[in-house]
Specification:
Pfam families: Bac_luciferase. It contains 12 helices and 9 strands. The chain has helices spanning 25-41, 63-73, 91-104, 121-128, 138-149, 178-186, 201-211, 235-241, 243-254, 273-282, 291-305, 319-331, and strands at residues 11-15, 46-49, 78-85, 109-114, 170-174, 190-192, 223-231, 286-289, 309-313. Helix 1 (25-41) crosses helix 2.
Length: 334
């Protein structure tokens, strides 16, 4: 096994602006900024937010606004969306928003695009209205967005000001195989949500690599794998801290979502055998333990799947423990 492989791998953060039990989004946002500043100092490549709606524990619904907040409070780290759920928005509005961000923070803004609603069907209907089936337009909407960003669009009747002529990297996000084909066809980088949708990860990145067509944006396939991460001084402490994310996913599968809860001592007091099995399946691509444990497991993961970048998301209740986990995680790549 090549132990040096992680030294060449960029590492990044996905933040859902998770709201803790007993707190509000107003408490959450300054913590995101502190985490972003720490991540910047530790050599993380990018800091992304994910668009979700109607979820009590997720405060990143106004994704572009948060990107501006973090970019303004940092200096060098790339900030972006992981992602913007494009069927929820008109491409022109996305182009204008990210054109504004890229004008304010040049060469630092990423635009990751997803086709899912980022919420339940009732909320998706409230967002999209008559455009409820807009996901079917995703490939054409990506093309519309690319055209709005292009210099060639200056003679069009519809222009993105600001946005036109700016170099804003577009990423295609996926949690199934559909978007893998689109990313490959368009020669765009691909980020997979293996932190909550592990089922199709291997198949999707295989499709992407096999069908990739070089483009003006990218000559070779580029894959980000998003994974759950909890690092502590000992495997036992990391396991205990991880009980918060396990409770979060338990809420997902039972439909009983809540604010992020503190870790319990024993998850067997909380879940049934069947619920445990379902949660552990969702957590297939999770890395929890001390730095030595993570380095070994992550090294194997990166080599086996051939991913180009690792993006960590960490649902840790205690903020100091979260900062410490973030610091320990960065040492794995040294």
């Amino acid at each position: 096994m090549n132990e040096a492989v992680l030294k060449n791998i960029p590492y990044s953060i996905l933040d859902l602006a998770t709201v803790l039990d007993g707190e509000t989004p107003a408490d959450t946002f300054p913590k995101s900024l502190e985490l972003a500043r720490q991540s910047e100092s530790l050599g993380y490549t990018r800091y992304w937010f994910a668009e979700h709606h109607n979820m009590a524990s997720v405060a990143s619904s106004a994704t572009a606004v948060l990107i501006g907040y973090i970019a303004n409070g940092t200096k060098t780290i790339r900030v972006g969306s992981g992602g913007i759920m494009l069927p929820n928005h008109a491409p022109l509005i996305v182009a204008e928003q990210f054109g504004t961000l890229a004008s304010l923070y040049p060469n630092r803004i990423d635009l990751g695009l997803g086709r899912a609603p980022g919420t339940d069907q009732v909320t998706a209907m409230a967002i999209r209205g008559e455009n409820f089936n807009a996901a079917h337009n995703f490939p054409k909407d990506v093309e519309r967005l690319q055209r709005l960003f292009s210099k060639e669009n200056r003679d069009s009747n519809v222009r993105a000001i600001p946005g036109e002529g700016l170099d804003i990297p577009i990423w295609i996000l996926g949690s199934s195989t559909d978007s893998a084909r689109l990313a490959a066809e368009k020669g765009l980088p691909y980020a997979f949500a293996s932190h909550f949708a592990p089922t199709y990860f291997e198949q999707a990145i295989g499709i992407y690599k096999a069908n990739f067509k070089p483009s003006q944006y990218l000559k070779e396939p580029y894959i980000i794998a998003c994974v759950n991460v909890v690092v502590a001084d000992t495997n036992e402490e990391a396991e205990r801290l991880s009980n918060s994310v396990k409770q979060m996913f338990l809420g997902v599968i039972t439909g009983k979502r809540s604010l992020l809860k503190p870790p319990v001592d024993d998850m067997d007091d909380v879940w049934s055998v069947y619920e445990k099995e379902a949660v552990e399946q969702m957590l297939t691509y999770s890395f929890m333990g001390n730095p030595e444990t993570l380095k070994e497991k992550l090294n194997s993961f990166v080599q086996y799947y051939g991913v180009n970048e690792v993006m960590a998301t960490s649902h840790i209740f205690d903020f100091e423990a979260k900062l410490y986990s973030n610091k320990l995680f960065s040492t794995i790549f040294a």
